[in-house]
Write a structure and sequence with these properties.
Elements: H1 2-18, E1 29-41, E2 44-48, E3 52-57, E4 62-72, E5 77-86, E6 96-111, E7 118-137, E8 141-164, E9 167-178, E10 181-183, E11 192-194, E12 197-208
Antiparallel strand pairs: 1-4, 1-12, 2-3, 2-11, 4-5, 5-6, 6-7, 7-8, 8-9, 9-12, 10-11
């Protein structure tokens, strides 16, 4: 219910921005963006050296934020670096802690209609998701690791709107998955491992540093 209300609010804001927005040309150059929204991870499936599978630990959906610095290399293609944070508390009965994520990704994006008011886009990204992990399920699992990294890949889809020159509003969906994290665990389960699978929906504001070219001068008056 919470995610549905957020999605509705985002869609309403974007629709209002698009009503009177003029189309503008997409100029090559640098841009910066900030995105905020909601993410919903899947439950964490934990395996251990001593006991095998420990089952799934339920985790909470929560807020996510991203900062991006990119470059439009052509009319349709963009490349960007993305820095993200996903807050994730564990909600499994009898288990305490969190698995908060800090990501660094390199994304390649394709704009389908970069010169239009409404522009769908897709993309792919690779990078690293670093977890601040604290899991307490004594006496079997006791993990406290503030910096565990794993390779991450993500698929991106969204739509952008152009409310003004050099400004874009991005509604972005991300699906992210990592390889396994491995943790030393002094509890009875021995070393444990799991991977992260996450989806997010964000609303972002993007500013292009490349201003559109000035209009051509008016024709000379007739003699």
């Amino acid at each position: 219910m919470k995610s549905a209300l957020m999605l509705g609010a985002m869609a309403s804001a974007l629709a209002a921005a698009a009503i009177a927005a003029p189309a503008q040309a997409a100029e090559p150059g640098w841009y910066a963006a900030v995105d905020v929204g909601y993410h919903w991870p899947t439950d964490v499936d934990v395996d251990s050296d001593n006991y095998g599978s420990l089952g799934s630990f339920a985790v909470d959906s929560d807020w996510a934020a991203f900062g991006r610095l990119g470059y439009r290399v052509s009319n349709n293609w963009r490349v960007e670096g993305e820095f993200g944070y996903r807050k994730t508390d564990i909600s499994e009965p009898g288990v305490t802690g969190h698995v908060n994520g800090r990501s660094v990704m390199l994304n390649v994006l394709y704009d389908f209609a970069p010169d239009s008011t409404i522009n769908p886009f897709i993309g792919l990204g690779i990078g690293d998701l670093d977890l601040d992990t604290k899991i307490g399920a004594a006496p079997d699992v006791m993990i406290n690791d503030h910096s565990a990294g794993a390779f991450a890949g993500q698929a991106i889809a969204g739509v952008s709107f152009h409310p003004a020159e050099q400004w874009d509003i991005d509604l972005t969906y991300r699906y992210l998955r990592t390889t396994d994290y491995e943790y030393y665990n002094p509890g009875g389960a021995g070393r444990v491992n799991f991977h992260v699978e996450d989806q997010s929906l964000t609303l972002g504001l993007r500013y292009s540093f490349a201003a559109p070219p000035p209009p051509p001068p008016p024709p000379p008056p007739p003699p």
